[in-house]
Structures are given as C-alpha cells and as structure tokens.
Amino acid sequence: MDVSPAALVHAVAEMKRDQTTSEVQMQVLKKAQDIQTSSAMAMLNALPASLPLASEGSLGTQVNALV
C-alpha cells in the first residue's frame, strides 16, 4: 500500500486540528463547570441560617414548617 507524502501530511494535520479542537472543548467544559460550581455555592451561602421553631400554637413547634 503506497501512501503519498501529501496524503500523509494532510492526515497528520487533520489529526492535530482534531486534537486541538478536543482540548479547547475540554477547557470550555471545565470553565462551565467551575462557573456552575461557584454559582451553586453562592446560592447555598445565600440561604438563611436555620429558622427557629414556633414557640406557640399547634404547628411548627416540633418541625420547622417554613423550610
């Protein structure tokens, strides 16, 4: 099987381009996951501390019904 040098160079260049594309896609994915992680942490940190139980009445004295 004879392979022309031009075809070989073309195949190598195409593989290199595909590899670069994959690396860029992975970097974008990691950046998106980092943004999502920081957004989720910001939302969790924005939640108020535990609310106190009701001190009177029949509801909310054992379990906090607001949560």
From TrEMBL:
Q: Which InterPro entries match?
A: YjfB_motility
Which domain of life, per UniProt?
A: Bacteria
One Pfam family this sequence matches: YjfB_motility
Q: What is this protein called?
A: Motility protein
Q: Which organism is it from?
A: Hydrogenophaga laconesensis
Lineage from the top down?
Bacteria, Pseudomonadati, Pseudomonadota, Betaproteobacteria, Burkholderiales
